[in-house]
Amino acid sequence: MPNRIFTGVGDEGFTSTWGGGRVPKDDAVIELNGAIDFLLSGLDIARLNNDKPYIRELIDYVERKLWQLGGEVSLIGKPSAEKELKDPITEEDIKIIEEKISALGAPPSTFMRFRASGAVYINECRVRSRYVERNMTRYMRAYDIRKETYVFINRLSDLLFMMAVRLESEK
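Request: output the structure for the sequence above.
Response:
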């Protein structure tokens, strides 16, 4: 194996998936994984800029699930894909997210702008989670996806919004 990061394999506009397939670099699977990566990087920044343990714990949990989702998305076309998932998103994860949303308090009754730095970082993640959701919708038109994964992503933007609301109220 060469001691370098570049291989030249993608120089024609195609890339490999974890499942072993070759797809164009603008395929829905690549776009969705790019959106997940974009959200993960935002969560890393939000975690770095938050000193509240409950926020860090929530971010850690969400990041673990997003890493699993990225792997699941990359396994398209592989017959044993479901068997290879170590910790897939389940109905239990959706319940956990819904409980966390409720525990953060009531949603605001009016439009809210975020000014506290921690809230701003989390709100940026909420925006990125909506980007993931839009890409996942496009992905669903081209590939099969488990319902739990879509519901989880749909709830995630609500969780992130309520985290930002809570942080804003604590400033």
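The chain has six helices and two strands.
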